[in-house]
Each structure stands twice: as structure tokens, then as C-alpha cells.
Amino acid sequence: MNDQIAIPCVVMRGGTSRGPFFLASDLPADPRARDAVLLSVMGGGHDLGIDGIGGGNAVINKVAIIGPASVPGADVDYLFAQVRVREGLVDTSPNCGNMLAAVGPFAIEAGLVPATADRTQVRIHNVNTGKLIDATVSTPGGKVTYEGNARIDGVPGTAAPIELSFPNAAGARTGRLLPTGRPVDRIAGIEVSCIDAAMPVMLVRAADLGWTGREAPSEFADSDFRARLENLRIEAGRRMGFPNSAAMVIPKPVLISSATEVTLNTRYFMPHDCHSALAVTGAVAIATACVTPGTIAAEMVGPLAPPVPITLAHPSGQLVVRLEAGPVARVQRTARRIFQGHVFARRAHMPHSILAA
């Protein structure tokens, strides 16, 4: 067709995130070569990803790579990649629960999972964390449907509901719910709670850093604050077992504050920009902290125990995590298939190993 490399691609919205979905068989198996392809198609090396299909915000610089399951009991593998277009980096250390919402529909339409009547359950193996997650997708007549009456804050309109179920989410990356061994750590005079449940996070009281926890994302542009938060995050990461967290997007820092109409106010960072909504995996971690004695979240909300809904306020509205015995965390999301075709990688960006293949 031309002098570029054409790669089959589907662009999907999952929850409040968006990005390209690839079959693993359509990308190089070698991680270095794979990451070079992702940086090329997303426009790495530019703040806005101007030479690719990425953008100027982390929520639209996400990639999902789907393939046959590699572990017993799962239907598909899902590898998530956070592309940092500005720095030209690809980080596969975290999971992404919003993109996860689109994995089930994609897998069914790609022929990896057969649809059943009315609803189809897809058991997803998240390669990043090794955890299994169940997604329940609307499939009336054996076909994926995207239209429906479910509404999630941060996305306009309504769509078909997709339920995500996270069993045994604790220790997703570190193997422990409390990676430091304590519900509260003190870093540079600030109390933080380091939690690993679906996503490693560092919780800090908004007031301890001079905020209310109800600010708009644009209000967190102050460079001194960002540097202070990043220093806290890096040290929290070191204590959680991530010695190179400066080059990773985990742990995610979260400002929390007390609320009256919801369980908590939250402001979630990715890790440098404040999320316009809230990450699903981050929400599971925050909700889990609310029922973990001794954490700063638990101290704010008072005694809670599953089964209980945890309602978290974010800049675009609210997100509800339903904690059940098991333990299991359930979240409702929606998804939409936006585009399918081919995306092009530039040959000049490819390692010799790809070009010689």
C-alpha cells in the first residue's frame, strides 16, 4: 500500500478511557520491538502525540493487547500498556480497569470468546498483575450490543452496562494488601497509606497538602505542588517495592477528603496529571482502603465492612464500588467500539529486527 507498516487495530472507549486494541498476534512478541510499534502509532516524543493516534492526556494514551488465555480458567489474556507520549515511554506495570471494560466486547467480536444468549461472561487474565477479572457483557441474540440505558459519570449519554468483578484484588503487584506492612507511613512529615488492591496507590489527606479534595483537575498545575507530590510518590513506591517508580506510573497518588453525601472525595493522579474522572482499579484500591482498619481512608469514613457500597466522588461525578464477601469488588462500566481498520507505524521508528522479519 505504501512505505509504512500497516497493523490491524480497533479503537475503543472503555469506561472513561480510550485507546487502540490489538490482537497480540498482530504485534511483535519481543517487548522492545512491540513498544517501538506502540510509540510509533501513538505518536511518542511529542506532548500531543501529533504524529500518531495518541493525545495530550493520559486517558487517551492507553493500549490494550488481547490474545488467547495463557493460564487455566481464563478466556483471554489482556496486557495493558500506558504510553507516555511526552517522554516516549511504554509502561506495562499497571492494569487499567476502564480499558478493561472494553476487553470483553473486543474478545467476543474478535472470535476469541463465543457469545451466549442475553449476557456473556468473559474471564480475563490481566497479564500485568496476574489477576483474573470477570466481565459480563450484554449479548442479546448472541451479538455484542453497545446501546443501552447505563450511565457512568465522565462519559456523555448512555450505553449497555458491563459489570466488572475483581475477586481477590489485594496484592495485584506486590503480593500484599499493605506492601509496607503498615496501614500508615510517614514520608517527609506527611501521613500516607500505601495500598495494593487492583492498583498500587498512595493515599494522602488532601488537607495535609493544602487542598480540599474537591478541586478541578486544572487547579493542580502548580509546579511546586507537583514536585512535592512526585517526591512523596517515589518514596512511597520505594517502600512498596518499586525502586524505579520514578520511571513507572505506579504507585498512583490519590488525594482524599471527607464527604457528607458520598463516602469520600477523591482526586486521582496518573501519576502527574489529575484524572478528569477516576480509574476503576484505583477506585477498587481506595474502596478497599476504606474497609482496611488503620488506613487514613478508614479513619475518615468510620467502621465499614462488606457487603457495602463505597461511593467515591471525582471531578466528573461519582463511581460506586460494591465490596462483597469473598472478597469481591464489583464496578459497572460501559464501552463502545469506535473505529476499526489499520493503523500505520513508521519504518524509521522500527528496530532492525522488525524490518528483517
Protein architecture, described:
The chain is of the alpha+beta class and 357 residues long. It folds into two domains: 187 residues, Diaminopimelate Epimerase, Chain A, domain 1; 143 residues, Diaminopimelate Epimerase, Chain A, domain 1. The chain is built from seven helices and 17 strands. It has a 17-stranded mixed beta sheet that branches. A hairpin with a 1-residue loop joins strand 10 and strand 11. The longest helix has 18 residues. It starts with a strand and ends with a helix. The relative contact order is 0.17. The mean pLDDT is 95.
Average predicted confidence as pLDDT: 95
Question: How many domains make up the 3D coordinates?
Answer: 2
Strand segment tally: 17
Tally of DSSP helical segments: 7
Along the chain, the helix and strand elements come as EEHEEEHHEEEEEEHEEHHEEEEH
Low-pLDDT runs: none
Oligomer: single chain
How does CATH name the architecture of the largest domain?
Answer: Roll
Query: How can the largest sheet be summarized?
Result: 17 strands, mixed
The secondary-structure class comes to alpha+beta
Form type: globular
* CATH top level assignment of the largest domain: Alpha Beta
Radius of gyration computed on alpha carbons: 20 Å
Give me the CATH fold name of the largest domain.
Diaminopimelate Epimerase, Chain A, domain 1
Tell me the helix content. Answer: 10-25%
